[in-house]
Amino acid sequence: MQMLGHAHQTGTLHINAGETDGILFFDAGEITHAECGSYFGDEAVIHILKSCVHGGAGVYKFAYGTTSAQRTVLRSATDLMLDAMREYDETARDLVDKEAL
Fold first, then answer.
1. Eight-state DSSP code of residue 10
2. What is the DSSP string of 42-60?
3. Long-range contacts: 2-5, Cβ < 8 Å, 24+?
4. pLDDT tens digits for the chain (101 residues)?
5. pTM for the complete prediction?
6. Which parts of 50-96 are beta strand (E)?
7. Distance CA 80, CA 76 (A)
8. Are 97 and 50 spatial neighbours (Cβ–Cβ below 8 Å)?
9. Would you give the end-to-end CA distance of the chain in angstroms?
10. Number of H helices, E strands in the chain
C-alpha cells in the first residue's frame, strides 16, 4: 500500500491471503474504495491490514488503470495503517493479559 501511494499509482490491488479476500482501489496513490467480505471503506482497509500484518503468504495483484465509481475510503492510508496497527497491538496485549490471569 505504501509503495503504491508513494508512486502515485492508479489501479486496483487484489488481495488473496489466507482467509482475506479484498480489493483496494487507488487513484493517483490515494485509496478511494475498499471491500473485504462484509467490510467496505475505511473498515475494509483496517481489516485487510490487520489480517495481513505478518506479510502473509498469498496473491497480491495490482491491475493498473482501474478505478472505482464510488468513494468509500475517507481517511488517508497513513491514518488507516496507524489505526490498524494500534488495534492489532491492543488485541495482542489483551491476549497476553488474559493468559497471565
1. -
2. HHHHHHHHHHTTT--SEEE
3. 2/77, 2/81, 4/29, 4/62, 5/29, 5/30, 5/31, 5/77
4. 889 999 999 999 999 988 889 999 999 999 999 999 999 999 999 999 998 876 667 899 999 999 999 999 999 999 999 999 999 899 888 888 777 76
5. 0.85
6. 58-64
7. 6
8. no
9. 38
10. 3, 5
